[in-house]
Amino acid sequence: SGRYFGTAVAASKLGDSTYVGILNREFDMVTAENEMKMDATEPNQNQFSYGNADRIVNQARGQGKRIRGHALAWHSQQPGWMQNMSGTALRNAMLNHVTQVATYYRGKIYAWDVVNEAYADGSGGGRRDSNLQRTGNDWIEAAFRAARTADPGAKLCYNDYNTDNWSHAKTQGVYRMVQDFKARGVPIDCVGFQAHFNSGNPVPSNYHTTLQNFANLGVDVQITELDIEGSGSSQAQQYQGVVQACLAVTRCTGITVWGIRDTDSWRASGTPLLFDG
Ligand code: G3I
Predict the structure, then answer these.
(1) At 190, is the secondary structure helix, strand, or coil?
(2) Ligand 1: residues within 6 Å at CB?
(3) Digitized pLDDT (tens) for each residue of the chain, 277 residues in all
(4) What global pTM score does this model have?
(5) Which residues contact 81 (CB under 8 A, 6 or more apart)?
(6) Residue 38 Cα, ligand 1 centroid: separation in angstroms?
Protein backbone atom coordinates (compact mmCIF):
# COMPACT_ATOMS: atom_id res chain seq x y z
CA SER A 1 0.00 0.00 0.00
CA GLY A 2 3.00 2.30 0.41
CA ARG A 3 1.81 3.11 3.91
CA TYR A 4 3.76 2.02 6.96
CA PHE A 5 2.94 1.48 10.63
CA GLY A 6 5.72 2.32 13.02
CA THR A 7 6.66 2.73 16.64
CA ALA A 8 9.31 4.51 18.65
CA VAL A 9 11.79 2.01 20.09
CA ALA A 10 14.24 2.26 23.00
CA ALA A 11 17.51 0.33 22.64
CA SER A 12 17.40 -0.50 26.35
CA LYS A 13 14.25 -2.58 25.83
CA LEU A 14 15.49 -4.82 23.02
CA GLY A 15 16.23 -7.53 25.61
CA ASP A 16 12.58 -7.59 26.74
CA SER A 17 11.00 -10.51 24.88
CA THR A 18 7.43 -9.26 25.39
CA TYR A 19 8.38 -5.88 23.96
CA VAL A 20 10.30 -7.36 21.03
CA GLY A 21 7.50 -9.84 20.36
CA ILE A 22 4.95 -7.06 19.90
CA LEU A 23 7.46 -4.98 17.95
CA ASN A 24 8.23 -7.74 15.47
CA ARG A 25 4.59 -8.78 15.07
CA GLU A 26 2.77 -5.46 14.77
CA PHE A 27 5.04 -2.91 13.07
CA ASP A 28 6.92 -2.50 9.80
CA MET A 29 8.74 0.74 10.67
CA VAL A 30 10.72 1.92 13.69
CA THR A 31 12.06 5.21 15.05
CA ALA A 32 14.73 5.52 17.72
CA GLU A 33 13.01 7.32 20.61
CA ASN A 34 16.22 9.02 21.80
CA GLU A 35 19.24 7.19 20.36
CA MET A 36 19.69 9.17 17.12
CA LYS A 37 19.33 12.61 18.70
CA MET A 38 22.23 15.04 18.71
CA ASP A 39 23.26 14.43 22.32
CA ALA A 40 23.33 10.67 21.73
CA THR A 41 25.19 10.63 18.42
CA GLU A 42 27.75 13.42 19.01
CA PRO A 43 28.38 13.56 22.77
CA ASN A 44 31.71 15.31 22.22
CA GLN A 45 32.30 17.56 19.25
CA ASN A 46 33.40 15.52 16.25
CA GLN A 47 33.32 12.27 18.28
CA PHE A 48 30.37 10.28 17.08
CA SER A 49 28.67 7.52 19.03
CA TYR A 50 26.32 5.14 17.23
CA GLY A 51 26.19 2.08 19.49
CA ASN A 52 22.63 2.37 20.80
CA ALA A 53 21.28 3.70 17.51
CA ASP A 54 22.92 0.81 15.67
CA ARG A 55 21.25 -1.71 17.99
CA ILE A 56 17.88 -0.35 16.91
CA VAL A 57 18.83 -0.09 13.22
CA ASN A 58 20.26 -3.61 13.11
CA GLN A 59 17.27 -5.14 14.92
CA ALA A 60 14.86 -3.38 12.56
CA ARG A 61 16.77 -4.25 9.40
CA GLY A 62 17.10 -7.85 10.53
CA GLN A 63 13.30 -7.99 10.62
CA GLY A 64 12.94 -6.21 7.26
CA LYS A 65 11.51 -3.04 8.79
CA ARG A 66 12.13 0.47 7.55
CA ILE A 67 13.61 3.19 9.74
CA ARG A 68 12.56 6.78 10.36
CA GLY A 69 15.61 8.71 11.55
CA HIS A 70 14.90 11.14 14.43
CA ALA A 71 16.32 13.80 14.48
CA LEU A 72 19.27 15.54 12.84
CA ALA A 73 18.82 19.14 14.09
CA TRP A 74 16.76 20.29 17.09
CA HIS A 75 16.96 23.02 19.73
CA SER A 76 16.45 20.38 22.44
CA GLN A 77 18.56 17.40 23.49
CA GLN A 78 21.69 19.08 22.19
CA PRO A 79 24.98 17.86 23.66
CA GLY A 80 26.42 20.20 26.29
CA TRP A 81 29.21 21.43 24.04
CA MET A 82 26.66 22.60 21.46
CA GLN A 83 24.30 24.33 23.91
CA ASN A 84 26.93 26.98 24.59
CA MET A 85 27.77 27.69 20.95
CA SER A 86 26.48 30.48 18.72
CA GLY A 87 26.95 32.17 15.36
CA THR A 88 29.08 30.68 12.61
CA ALA A 89 30.67 28.12 14.90
CA LEU A 90 27.24 26.71 15.83
CA ARG A 91 25.98 26.81 12.23
CA ASN A 92 29.03 24.88 11.05
CA ALA A 93 28.79 22.41 13.94
CA MET A 94 25.12 21.78 13.14
CA LEU A 95 25.83 21.26 9.43
CA ASN A 96 28.74 18.95 10.25
CA HIS A 97 26.45 16.94 12.52
CA VAL A 98 23.79 16.62 9.83
CA THR A 99 26.38 15.59 7.26
CA GLN A 100 28.20 13.08 9.46
CA VAL A 101 25.12 11.31 10.84
CA ALA A 102 23.22 11.22 7.53
CA THR A 103 26.35 9.94 5.78
CA TYR A 104 26.93 7.23 8.41
CA TYR A 105 23.37 5.93 7.92
CA ARG A 106 23.25 6.60 4.17
CA GLY A 107 21.09 4.01 2.43
CA LYS A 108 19.53 2.69 5.66
CA ILE A 109 17.00 5.42 6.46
CA TYR A 110 13.59 5.64 4.82
CA ALA A 111 12.93 9.16 6.10
CA TRP A 112 14.87 11.58 8.27
CA ASP A 113 13.40 14.18 10.58
CA VAL A 114 15.97 16.72 9.40
CA VAL A 115 14.66 19.55 11.58
CA ASN A 116 12.43 19.07 14.60
CA GLU A 117 10.14 21.57 16.36
CA ALA A 118 11.47 24.85 14.91
CA TYR A 119 8.17 26.77 15.14
CA ALA A 120 6.84 28.59 18.19
CA ASP A 121 3.58 27.80 19.96
CA GLY A 122 0.95 30.49 20.26
CA SER A 123 -0.65 32.93 17.88
CA GLY A 124 2.38 34.37 16.11
CA GLY A 125 3.02 31.64 13.56
CA GLY A 126 6.76 32.30 13.58
CA ARG A 127 9.94 30.51 14.43
CA ARG A 128 10.84 29.39 17.94
CA ASP A 129 13.75 31.29 19.46
CA SER A 130 16.77 29.01 19.90
CA ASN A 131 20.51 29.04 19.51
CA LEU A 132 20.04 27.49 16.05
CA GLN A 133 17.45 30.08 15.00
CA ARG A 134 19.82 32.85 16.09
CA THR A 135 22.40 31.60 13.55
CA GLY A 136 20.06 32.96 10.85
CA ASN A 137 16.61 32.22 9.46
CA ASP A 138 18.11 30.05 6.71
CA TRP A 139 19.35 27.42 9.17
CA ILE A 140 16.49 25.05 8.31
CA GLU A 141 17.05 25.08 4.57
CA ALA A 142 20.81 24.76 5.12
CA ALA A 143 20.18 21.62 7.17
CA PHE A 144 17.93 20.16 4.44
CA ARG A 145 20.50 20.84 1.72
CA ALA A 146 23.26 19.19 3.79
CA ALA A 147 21.05 16.15 4.45
CA ARG A 148 20.19 15.75 0.75
CA THR A 149 23.85 15.82 -0.20
CA ALA A 150 24.73 13.28 2.50
CA ASP A 151 21.92 10.78 1.76
CA PRO A 152 20.14 11.47 -1.54
CA GLY A 153 17.94 8.38 -1.09
CA ALA A 154 16.30 9.35 2.20
CA LYS A 155 13.07 11.29 2.33
CA LEU A 156 13.72 14.54 4.17
CA CYS A 157 11.04 15.64 6.63
CA TYR A 158 10.22 18.65 8.76
CA ASN A 159 8.64 17.39 12.04
CA ASP A 160 6.63 19.35 14.64
CA TYR A 161 3.80 19.18 17.21
CA ASN A 162 0.59 21.23 17.61
CA THR A 163 0.42 21.53 13.84
CA ASP A 164 -2.64 19.28 13.49
CA ASN A 165 -5.37 21.94 13.54
CA TRP A 166 -5.54 23.77 10.22
CA SER A 167 -6.76 26.99 11.85
CA HIS A 168 -3.81 27.29 14.26
CA ALA A 169 -1.13 29.91 13.53
CA LYS A 170 1.66 27.36 14.06
CA THR A 171 0.17 25.07 11.40
CA GLN A 172 -0.02 28.03 9.00
CA GLY A 173 3.56 29.03 9.74
CA VAL A 174 4.90 25.57 8.91
CA TYR A 175 2.68 25.43 5.81
CA ARG A 176 4.12 28.71 4.51
CA MET A 177 7.67 27.43 5.09
CA VAL A 178 7.01 24.24 3.11
CA GLN A 179 5.30 26.25 0.36
CA ASP A 180 8.33 28.55 0.20
CA PHE A 181 10.78 25.62 0.16
CA LYS A 182 8.93 23.97 -2.71
CA ALA A 183 8.80 27.27 -4.64
CA ARG A 184 12.55 27.83 -4.24
CA GLY A 185 13.69 24.25 -4.75
CA VAL A 186 14.85 23.61 -1.18
CA PRO A 187 14.89 19.79 -0.87
CA ILE A 188 11.97 18.72 1.33
CA ASP A 189 9.96 15.52 0.81
CA CYS A 190 7.69 15.18 3.80
CA VAL A 191 6.12 16.80 6.81
CA GLY A 192 5.78 14.93 10.09
CA PHE A 193 2.85 15.59 12.43
CA GLN A 194 3.87 14.40 15.88
CA ALA A 195 0.27 14.03 17.07
CA HIS A 196 0.74 14.08 20.85
CA PHE A 197 -2.92 14.57 21.71
CA ASN A 198 -4.43 15.51 25.07
CA SER A 199 -7.45 17.43 26.36
CA GLY A 200 -5.75 20.76 25.60
CA ASN A 201 -4.76 19.60 22.13
CA PRO A 202 -7.44 17.14 20.96
CA VAL A 203 -7.59 15.45 17.56
CA PRO A 204 -9.08 18.29 15.45
CA SER A 205 -12.16 17.74 13.30
CA ASN A 206 -10.27 19.38 10.42
CA TYR A 207 -7.31 16.96 10.61
CA HIS A 208 -7.99 15.56 7.14
CA THR A 209 -7.98 19.12 5.76
CA THR A 210 -4.60 19.81 7.34
CA LEU A 211 -3.00 16.64 6.00
CA GLN A 212 -4.51 17.11 2.53
CA ASN A 213 -3.47 20.76 2.26
CA PHE A 214 0.14 19.91 3.11
CA ALA A 215 0.10 16.96 0.70
CA ASN A 216 -1.17 19.31 -2.01
CA LEU A 217 2.11 21.23 -1.71
CA GLY A 218 3.83 18.14 -3.14
CA VAL A 219 5.14 16.48 0.02
CA ASP A 220 4.31 13.23 1.79
CA VAL A 221 2.70 13.61 5.19
CA GLN A 222 3.27 11.23 8.10
CA ILE A 223 1.91 10.89 11.63
CA THR A 224 5.19 10.55 13.49
CA GLU A 225 4.77 10.37 17.29
CA LEU A 226 1.14 9.45 17.91
CA ASP A 227 -0.14 9.08 21.44
CA ILE A 228 -3.51 10.10 22.89
CA GLU A 229 -4.29 10.91 26.51
CA GLY A 230 -7.35 9.12 27.85
CA SER A 231 -8.88 5.67 27.89
CA GLY A 232 -11.82 3.61 26.71
CA SER A 233 -14.09 4.34 23.79
CA SER A 234 -13.35 8.09 23.70
CA GLN A 235 -9.65 7.38 23.26
CA ALA A 236 -10.38 4.62 20.76
CA GLN A 237 -12.54 6.97 18.68
CA GLN A 238 -9.72 9.51 18.60
CA TYR A 239 -7.27 6.86 17.41
CA GLN A 240 -9.83 5.93 14.75
CA GLY A 241 -10.12 9.57 13.70
CA VAL A 242 -6.36 9.91 13.22
CA VAL A 243 -6.14 6.70 11.19
CA GLN A 244 -9.13 7.66 9.02
CA ALA A 245 -7.66 11.13 8.37
CA CYS A 246 -4.41 9.55 7.20
CA LEU A 247 -6.09 6.87 5.08
CA ALA A 248 -8.16 9.57 3.34
CA VAL A 249 -4.99 11.25 2.05
CA THR A 250 -3.10 9.36 -0.67
CA ARG A 251 0.20 10.93 0.33
CA CYS A 252 -0.18 10.08 4.02
CA THR A 253 2.48 7.38 3.96
CA GLY A 254 2.78 6.35 7.58
CA ILE A 255 1.61 6.37 11.15
CA THR A 256 4.13 5.96 13.98
CA VAL A 257 3.00 5.57 17.59
CA TRP A 258 5.37 6.95 20.22
CA GLY A 259 6.05 3.70 22.03
CA ILE A 260 4.52 0.25 22.33
CA ARG A 261 3.03 -0.22 25.82
CA ASP A 262 1.68 2.47 28.15
CA THR A 263 4.58 1.63 30.45
CA ASP A 264 7.03 2.47 27.65
CA SER A 265 5.59 5.95 27.12
CA TRP A 266 7.22 9.27 28.00
CA ARG A 267 3.71 9.94 29.39
CA ALA A 268 3.98 6.83 31.57
CA SER A 269 1.58 8.14 34.23
CA GLY A 270 -1.27 7.75 31.74
CA THR A 271 -2.49 5.16 29.25
CA PRO A 272 -1.76 6.87 25.93
CA LEU A 273 -0.66 3.92 23.77
CA LEU A 274 -2.17 0.88 22.08
CA PHE A 275 -0.87 -1.84 24.43
CA ASP A 276 -1.10 -2.01 28.22
CA GLY A 277 1.84 -2.88 30.44
O1 G3I B 1 18.86 7.60 29.96
C2 G3I B 1 18.84 8.51 31.03
C3 G3I B 1 19.11 7.81 32.34
O4 G3I B 1 20.40 7.26 32.30
C5 G3I B 1 18.96 8.82 33.47
O6 G3I B 1 19.13 8.15 34.70
C7 G3I B 1 17.59 9.45 33.45
C8 G3I B 1 17.41 10.50 34.54
O9 G3I B 1 16.81 11.67 34.07
O10 G3I B 1 17.43 10.08 32.20
C11 G3I B 1 17.48 9.18 31.10
O12 G3I B 1 17.33 9.92 29.90
C13 G3I B 1 16.01 10.34 29.64
C14 G3I B 1 15.61 9.81 28.26
O15 G3I B 1 14.35 10.29 27.91
C16 G3I B 1 15.56 8.28 28.22
O17 G3I B 1 14.59 7.81 29.08
C18 G3I B 1 15.97 11.85 29.65
O19 G3I B 1 16.20 12.33 30.96
C20 G3I B 1 14.63 12.33 29.15
O21 G3I B 1 14.69 13.74 28.99
C22 G3I B 1 14.32 11.70 27.81
O23 G3I B 1 13.02 12.11 27.43
C24 G3I B 1 12.74 12.01 26.05
C25 G3I B 1 12.31 13.37 25.51
O26 G3I B 1 11.97 13.24 24.16
C27 G3I B 1 13.41 14.40 25.65
O28 G3I B 1 13.07 15.58 25.03
C29 G3I B 1 11.61 10.99 25.86
O30 G3I B 1 12.08 9.68 26.21
C31 G3I B 1 11.15 11.01 24.40
O32 G3I B 1 9.98 10.23 24.28
C33 G3I B 1 10.84 12.42 23.98
O34 G3I B 1 10.47 12.41 22.62
C35 G3I B 1 10.08 13.66 22.08
C36 G3I B 1 10.50 13.65 20.63
O37 G3I B 1 11.88 13.41 20.51
C38 G3I B 1 10.14 14.96 19.95
N39 G3I B 1 8.73 15.29 20.13
C40 G3I B 1 8.25 15.25 21.51
C41 G3I B 1 8.56 13.91 22.16
C42 G3I B 1 7.98 13.84 23.57
O43 G3I B 1 8.58 14.76 24.43
Answers:
(1) strand
(2) 33-34, 76-77, 116, 161, 194, 225, 266
(3) 589 999 999 999 999 999 999 999 999 999 999 999 999 999 999 999 999 999 999 999 999 999 999 999 999 999 999 999 999 999 999 999 999 999 999 999 999 999 999 999 999 999 999 999 999 999 999 999 999 999 999 999 999 999 999 999 999 999 999 999 999 999 999 999 999 999 888 999 999 999 999 999 999 999 999 999 999 999 999 999 999 999 999 999 999 999 999 999 999 899 999 999 9
(4) 0.97
(5) 44, 45
(6) 12
